[in-house]
Design a protein that fits this description.
six-stranded parallel β-sheet, binds zinc ion, 45% helix
């Protein structure tokens, strides 16, 4: 029964739908996806949530500019976002739009609970408001009298009567929580940042706005609508049915195991959100992982600065797996990364075309050419030769540690340097293309070893390059020995028991495998 399996609830930040996804948001979704796939593969009952943040003034403005109603506009944008994530092989189980009734219902229940608990009060408020952030800015946050993230925009002075959340009441409890749960905020550097921020004192925050028709009305004062962050953060529980259905999903999956977010929104997720949950008497998420930013040759990807690269451009040209590989390998998930087309082509040619693709095509070509695709007797061959010097049990354990803590780049470096390089070196040293002329039996032993290497690589890259991994696993009849749906990292160390002889099952054209990663010419200097 599925109930025996440990659950793993993983979320990403929800995105503003006022423009299409960019590489920075794609980076986050791909990282979360690798984690979700890794957990599913290792027996977890995973629930992976993504979504769009729709109850914002900007959405309403943008829809008006386009002559659309806000709901028609956000629904259309949600379709576009979901198409991009699907094209990138992101395996989310649910996609919440915060304009959905389930979200509205859950928000109303939540804000009422916090109000009843005495943590919401009304007061007149004057503050400096940044339209770009959709947030009030305190004096000490300003740079040159403007928002540090939106230097091009004037701040607006807004005066109105709003409801406030008594965030200031939670400082000590938050600090105690950070101390008692050292893994709550990851990576470590982000933890210190948040700790210092909370230690320096928290102010109560405005959580409603007056006079906006698009948004969620406050149940105890329908003239007010719930304001951006208080509303947005609740998607993590409303998507599970909190406040809208029988809540069995909520009871099963909450608290979240990890919220994957960008480093610019840690304070909302690590201070405001846990305080909101404390106020409502709900359990806190187990951890928050803040990833870095992706820069375009050193410049921050930003919708407002107009430097965003449409991920579809890169993806359409090179495919989903090379796109995923670039970001997971080249950009350390907890740090910042760079995108440049030159580096992309370099990495593609060296790691995918020459290394990964070459092992695949050489193994298949020789099996087909020398043995008609059927390695008769290979069930009796123990593939110890290519593994010489490799401790695959230890490697599986090491990689489980790395992937489990979002160290994807290091995991991929390890897979390439310890497994793929070893397998390719084995082919160079044994020279099966020469050996076949003098010793077909010895050649068959080499090819059985190479087939085993393909099997090992397929399993290891499954969370990262899902399409390629499956192509590798279906190259031979590996499925007859161990179903693809049940392989785990420790499977690499054991050649499957009672296995049949390996037979090529990959589709062929004129007796040759289809090229997986045809080399690309480096872009011309511009
Ligand atoms: Zn701003």
């Amino acid at each position: 029964m599925s109930s025996d399996r440990p659950k793993f609830y993983i979320t990403t930040a929800i995105d503003y739908p006022n423009s299409r996804p960019h590489i920075g948001t794609a980076f986050e979704k791909i990282g979360a996806d690798a984690q979700a796939r890794f957990r599913r593969m290792h027996g977890y009952d995973v629930h992976f949530l993504m979504g769009n943040d729709e109850n914002t003034i900007k959405v309403d403005q943008r829809a008006t500019e386009l002559g659309l109603g806000p709901k028609a506009y956000v629904d259309d944008m949600a379709l576009q976002f979901r198409q991009v994530w699907s094209d990138l092989n992101v395996s989310n189980d649910d996609f919440i739009q915060t304009s959905e009734p389930r979200h509205h219902d859950g928000c109303r229940k939540f804000i009422q609970a916090v109000y009843d608990a005495g943590y919401i009060f009304k007061k007149a408020y004057t503050g400096l408001y940044c339209n770009g952030c959709e947030a009030f800015k305190t004096e000490k946050e300003l740079e040159n009298g403007r928002c540090p993230n939106h230097q091009g925009q004037e701040l607006k002075r807004i005066e109105e009567e709003n409801y406030f959340f008594r965030l200031s009441a939670f400082g000590d409890r938050l600090l105690a929580h950070y101390r008692d749960n050292p893994d709550f905020i990851q990576p470590e550097s982000r933890r210190n940042e948040v700790y210092n921020l909370v230690e320096s004192g928290l102010q109560d925050v405005s959580i409603t706005r007056k006079g906006f028709s698009w948004g969620i009305p406050v149940p105890f004062d329908p003239e007010q609508t719930i304001y951006v962050w208080f509303d947005a953060l609740l998607n993590y529980i409303t998507a599970l049915g909190y406040g809208s259905d029988d809540e069995t999903r909520f009871e099963k999956y909450w608290p979240a195991d990890v919220h994957v977010i960008g480093k610019d929104i840690t304070r909302f997720h690590c201070a405001l959100w846990p305080a909101m949950l404390m106020a409502a008497g709900l359990p806190l998420p187990k951890s928050v992982y803040a990833h870095g930013f992706v820069y375009n040759k050193g410049q921050k990807m930003s919708k407002s600065a107009g430097t965003a690269i449409d991920p579809m451009t890169v993806y359409r040209t090179y495919g989903a797996d090379p796109f995923r590989y670039y970001f997971l390998k080249e950009c350390v998930f907890g740090g910042d990364g760079n995108f440049s087309e030159e580096r992309f082509v370099e990495l593609y040619n060296s790691d995918l075309a020459n290394n990964l693709g070459n092992l695949y095509s050489r193994t298949l070509s020789m099996c087909v050419r020398y043995f008609g695709g059927n390695l008769e007797g290979s069930a009796a061959i123990d593939p110890v030769d290519w593994r010489e010097g490799l401790d695959l049990d230890a490697l599986a354990a090491e990689l489980e540690g790395l992937v489990g803590t979002f160290e994807f780049s290091q995991a991929l470096v390890t897979i390439w340097s310890r497994v793929l390089d070893t397998a390719n070196r084995y082919v160079q040293n044994t020279e099966p293309f020469k050996l076949i002329k003098t010793d077909p039996d010895a050649t068959k032993v080499v090819l059985a070893n190479m087939a085993d290497a393909l099997r090992v690589v397929a399993i290891l890259i499954k969370p990262f390059l899902p399409a390629t991994a499956e192509i590798f696993y279906r190259a031979f009849n590996f499925e007859d020995a161990e179903p693809w749906s049940t392989v785990r990292y420790p499977s690499i160390a054991r050649p499957p028991m009672n296995r049949p002889d390996w037979t090529v099952t990959a589709p062929l054209a004129d007796g040759k495998p289809f090229p997986l990663f045809p080399k690309i010419q480096p872009p011309k200097e511009s």
